[in-house]
Amino acid sequence: MATIINMPRLSDTMEEGVLAKWLKNVGDKIEEGDILAEIETDKATMEFESFYEGTLLYVGLQEGETSPVDVLLAIIGEEGEDISAIINGSSSEPEKTVTPEVIKEETTAEVSKTDAVEIPEGVHVITMPRLSDTMTDGTVATWLKKVGDVVGEGDMLAEIETDKATMEFECFYEGTILFIGVQEGETVPVDSLLIIIGPAGTDVAALIAKGSAVTSKEESIDEKTATKPAAANKTEEVKAVVTSNNTSNGRVFASPLAKKIATDKGINLADINGSGENGRIIKKDVENFTPSTNEAANKSTVTAPTSSFIATGEERSEEVKNSQMRKAIAKSLGNSKFSAPDFSLNIEVDMDNAMASRKTINAIPDTKVSFNDMVVKACAMALKKHPQVNTSWTDTNTVYHNHIHVGVAVAVDDGLLVPVIKYTDQLSLTQIGAGVRDLAGKARNKKIAPADMQGSTFTVSNLGMFGIENFNSIINQPNSAILSVGAIVQKPVVKDGQIVVGNTMKLTLTCDHRTVDGAVGAQFLQTLKTFIENPVTMLA
């Protein structure tokens, strides 16, 4: 009998996974324990093991595809077994991954099949444009045209307020304004029906009833090239100040798109006769313009002022798809920063005794202890004395953890992982050091198990090795606090009334104020300081 295998949940925070690589092909014989695939989670790329025997009959994801947890991944069964019913009708049917463009096309197709609305010839349905990369809705600040007005390509229809600026919205069609769907001051989502333009007298009642669902694909606009911030005076035209051999400083009326095209082609707007409203230069004027011989000669003799420096180059950007780890980091730290009322406390620790103690300990054969190991051990012992810091907040309770599991932040290629040293207070300095090195190595090689990154009750983040002296970390929820560890710095210090050269290290404790008050955090830091400055107390 066929066995359905779904996308597994390989970490406590995993919501979706990427099929990084198939290690088996359809038709291959599978044994229990065989590695089927490598799956990229929000924390690491992990091998996925089969718990069943049989033949691999079907794979539901291709390499590189992303799927939510519990969606059909593969089917294992007897060779030749009919699984068409499972693929076509099972509740575990693989979900189709689609892009926004595909969704739009399918939606349009669905509308045309079930609720077909024929767009009359010459009619253009225009929706609220996306005028910035973060815009989700827009407000019509001012209409510059009204129903019944005849408009042409390049005319300004309205001023639209986005999340970043108030922008002019330019018309790309010719005709009469038949309908306005958003009133001044009204806010609507992107792609909502904004305006309909077409031949005068055209009946557009059916289009109005269907709203933005009838927008055709060819009517989408490149909003980024079609707009620019509106002038302070709503009725003032966009003006460009230019200088040429046959004109003095003056004003040239041109649409933003016409200006962009002219700039790209190196055309002086002052040489163009505009055919738009009030002589305004529009897109087609620039595209149809041919410089005369005299104009070309004049342009070739123009020189830039010697006092100016003109830098040229290529503007270039590259989009890199966010990895599952980066998305998880963004989600968890965003939730922490915007949900927890945090505060930070700072102290400076004398590291002279710690440096001497570490040197003595590391002189023992086969022993290696780092300053970070000493800080982790000191944190575990301080947490025992201040259990209020070893807590987690829920909407109904404060959870006091009787165990102490310290997470240690580790930088990896794609971001940040936090391996957890379990029962840290019960371990020696050397055991902590060995545990941190082992888990950090697994994390960097993407071989760490999910269980090794779960259950922390407190976190330590150390950037001292990068020369950072002081910083604030974001709390690693559900922890109540995180300690930021800076670099050890040699500096003048006062000891016994004398200025001497000493070694100090700055520590910053960031606390969730819902569970840890300022006084509690301060007392924790004082205890931590005592342990670090007197390492012999941690050896008892």
Keywords:
alpha+beta; OB fold (Dihydrolipoamide Acetyltransferase, E2P); 540 residues; 24% helix; 12 helices; 28 strands; extended; Dihydrolipoamide Transferase
What's the multimeric state?
single chain
Which CATH-level-2 architecture of the largest domain? 2-Layer Sandwich
Radius of gyration of CA atoms, rounded to a whole number: 33 Å
Please identify the structural class as seen in this structure. Answer: alpha+beta
CATH class descriptor of the largest domain? Alpha Beta
| Arithmetic mean of pLDDT | 81
Using the coordinates shown, work out and report the CATH topology of the largest domain: Chloramphenicol Acetyltransferase
The domain tally reads 4
- How can the largest sheet be summarized? 6 strands, mixed
**Shape label:** extended
What does this structure look like?
The chain is an alpha+beta fold and 540 residues long. The protein folds into four domains: 3-89, OB fold (Dihydrolipoamide Acetyltransferase, E2P) (Beta Barrel), CATH 2.40.50; 117-226, OB fold (Dihydrolipoamide Acetyltransferase, E2P); 239-301, E3-binding domain (Dihydrolipoamide Transferase, Irregular); 324-538, Chloramphenicol acetyltransferase-like domain (Chloramphenicol Acetyltransferase), CATH 3.30.559. The protein is 24% helix and 28% strand. It has twelve helices and 28 strands. It has helices at 84-89, 100-114, 205-210, 223-226, 256-265, 283-287, 293-301, 324-339, 352-362, 371-385, 429-444, 518-533; strands at 3-6, 16-22, 29-30, 35-40, 45-49, 54-59, 66-68, 72-77, 124-127, 137-143, 150-151, 156-161, 166-170, 175-180, 187-189, 193-198, 239-244, 247-253, 342-350, 391-393, 398-400, 406-408, 410-412, 415-417, 420-421, 458-462, 481-495, 498-512. A six-stranded mixed β-sheet has the order 19-28-27-26-22-25. Strands 1-8-6-3 form a four-stranded antiparallel β-sheet, with no helix packed on it. The protein has a four-stranded antiparallel β-sheet with strand order 5-4-2-7, with no helix packed on it. Helix 10 packs across helix 11 (429-444) and helix 10 (371-385) crosses helix 12. The chain starts with a strand and ends in a 7-residue tail after the last helix.
